[in-house]
Structure formats: C-alpha cells, structure tokens
Amino acid sequence: MKNIVIIGGGAAGLMAAITASAKKGNNVTVIEKNERAGRKLMITGKGRCNVCNNCDIDTLIANIPKNAKFLYSAFSALPPQELMSLFEKWGVALKTERGNRVFPVSDKAVDIVDALVNTAKKQGVKTVNSTAEKLMTRDNKIIGVKLTNGNILSADSVILATGGMSYPLTGSTGDGYTMASAFGHTVTELKPSLVPLNIHEGFCTRLSGLSLKNITLSVFEDGKKKPLFCEMGEMLFTHFGISGPLVLSASSHIRYMGKKQYSAFIDLKPALSVEQLDNRILRDFGELQNKDFTNSLDKLLPKSLIPVIVKLSGIDGGKKVNQISREERARLCSIIKGLQLHITGFRPIEEAIITSGGISVKEIDPKTMESKIINGLYFAGEIIDVDAYTGGFNLQIAFSTGYMAGSNA
User: What range defines the domain where residue 165 resides?
Assistant: First the structure.
C-alpha cells in the first residue's frame, strides 16, 4: 500500500486526491488548513466558478503567456472535454457561455466544490484539518510530512498543491514555496496577476463605485502602437484606480510593470464611430440650444462622469452649447472615445486572483509533475511557475496538473 499525502485541498489538490485514490491500494490523505476544502474555488467566477474553457489544447497553450509548453503533457492527459465529462459524471450539469467559458448550469461554485469533496470521500480519501510545517526526507526521498501540531504523517510521495500568495484569507499564504525551497527548489519572482490597477489620475477616487458597461478598454505599453490588450466589457472605478472583469484580464498582459510605462484608454461609446458620435452630440446640442455645456451631456454619459469629461475637454462648463466650435466638439469626441489613464502599478498580491511566478518549471518533470530534486515530491496547480489569462484557463491548469500529479504519485 502506498501512502500519498497531498498538501492543500483546493482545485489541484482535490483532483490529485481523486486521481490517486482511484488506483486500488493507495492510502490518500489531504492536509487542509481550512475547515472546509475548496475555499478559493467557492469565490472564483464571482461565485459561479468558471470551471474551464471548452477549447482545444492549442487554444489553451495560446492563453498561457509563460512556460506554456511545460503544460502540454498535462493538458493532453486531461483536456477540457474530459474534465467536463468528469464533472458531468459526478452529477454537475455544465454549460458553455461567451468565449467558450464553462460554468455549472446552477451558476453555483459550491456544486463544483461539493462534487470534488464528495467524490474524494467516496473513494476513501482522508482529510486532516491541520497545517503542514515541513517535508521530511531521507536519502533525497520523501518519507513524510510534519504538521504544526507535531504529528508526523508518513508518506511514500507528497503532492504540494498549496496555491500561490493571492487571497490569503482562503489559505493561500505561500507555505508551499517555503517547504520546497528548503530542499533546493527555485522560487521565481512572485507577482500579482489578474489584479486591479493603481491609476495616477485623481479623478478615479471621485468616480469610486461607478461601474461602466459595454465599454472598450485598451492597454498600451509606451512606445508601442499596437495595444497589449483590447476588449469590450465591464469595469469599475475605485478609490485607488480601476477594477472589474476587463481590468483583471488586462492586468495579466502587463508583464514588465515597474520597468516599462503603461496607459489604459477607455472608449465610452465603442458602438459609435467618431463621426457618428459627433452627429449624436450635435443632435443633443440642437435640442438644448440655450443650455450650458455642463448640463448638456446627461443623455450621453453617467452623471458622475460628466464633470470629469467637461474638465478634460477644456471647454468652459458655463458656455452655451450653441457657441461650442467644431474644434471643441472634436476634442470632446476624442476624450469620450479615448479617456486616458496612466497605470502606476498593480494592487498588492493579496488582492490578486492569481500569483504569477512559483516553483521553476525547469525543476519539475512535465510528464509526471515530479520534482527533479527530491524523489517522491510532486507539484500541482498555482504553486508552479505558470499562469494564464482569464476564461477558465487557470482552473484548467490546476485540474490538469493535479490529475497528472495524482496519476504518477
């Protein structure tokens, strides 16, 4: 009988436990510091859980900006369609939405967590509610795990699935990096990914709480003509800058924060060309002949945004609309079609959805997820130096690497 210990009961850890326990004769234990497993899974996709992306392996690889090739074997072992079949088999009906994003039909992340936890239980997986303190080895081979309460669990193999540094309240506090680095593993620079952005412009604070829908957000690296990111969707102004789905997606495309300068541009009216927007403004002005400029934009823009746009346009707010020149209108159109924000940095890693960086992929066998340094030590999920864009790709990494580690441990 093989004793397999998995540290971390998140997406990767639970999938590893289910896969390892499916092989007869394995004694599988999950060490989970929270009272309930899958805490972070519960809050993914705004509580709906974007399980994966219903796409092919090439598309998966294209959505991973760093060390994508390392994941090829894991994705081949458990591609999205097979992952979806597993959840359907475990009683969770799934649906595919815009951008091939896959969610439970119920729109409840708890159904995904329950399916993983219940399947693991049915297969005899034991859960220990405690915190792992350190790995135990002899002759460069894993022999067990010491817990913070002093207990020792003997193990023929250990799977580290402790997550990253993001959302520490869910248990991701970076313990796995400390345990692995104590035995010579390299931890690459840890940075936030899928994270809100700090903005230089002070008006963001005044706009805090304003949600913009159906706008286009573009992010440029200074000196480059082509945007790093350009998508239509939803975003939110905050006291520090900007957040929301579009912003989180955009952040993962910014790879050299601090070394290079970045700007964001918001097209507040993406459905209208500049000419169409000018005609629309002229029409509004025509209906409001003797109104002051500052009172003429109610039909066009959210109320709290109007003073900001008026100031940026350089047009006197008290000027009558019938006195506004073509040049002034052109300036107004250019701001509405491209409200510029200067990005000063990421929010702290604790506020990020995903950690970029982790255990170096050069030290992990991509065909098994086993350490090349310590025999019997495996890695799964966010602890590895791979991260992806939004759309279910990060959870696919967790499930596929968990499956691979569980199969080989």
Answer: 2-191+357-408
Identify the CATH number of the domain in which residue 376 sits.
Answer: 3.50.50.60
DSSP code per residue over 9-65: -SHHHHHHHHHHHTSTTEEEEEE-SSSSS-HHHHHGGGGT---EE-S-HHHHHHT--
CA–CA distance, 124 with 128 (Å, rounded to integer): 13
| pLDDT, averaged across the chain | 95
32: Cα within 13 Å, side-chain hemisphere: 22
Q: pLDDT-based confidence at 17, cuts 50/70/90? A: very high
pTM reported for the whole predicted model? 0.87
Q: What is the pLDDT of residues 178-211, one digit of tens each?
A: 999 999 999 999 998 889 999 999 999 999 999 9
Centroid of chain to Cα 34: 21
Q: What is the DSSP string of 145-190?
A: EEETTS-EEE-SEEEE----SS-GGGT-SSHHHHHHHTTT--BPPP
Nearest CA among 231, 288, 220, 285 for reference residue 254: 220
The Cα 355–Cα 366 span in angstroms is 20
Backbone angles phi, psi at 378, to 5 degrees: -125, 160
Looking at 322, 346, 370, which one is the last position of a domain?
Answer: 346
Task: Check: CB of residue 399 under 8 Å from CB of residue 12.
Answer: yes
Helix (H, G, I), strand (E, B) or coil at 341: strand
N- to C-terminal Cα distance for the chain?
12
Where does residue 203 fall: left (phi above 0), alpha (psi -120 to 50 degrees), or beta otherwise?
alpha
What does 316-337 look like in DSSP terms, one character per residue? Answer: -TTSBGGG--HHHHHHHHHHHH
Which tokens go with 183?
């035995």
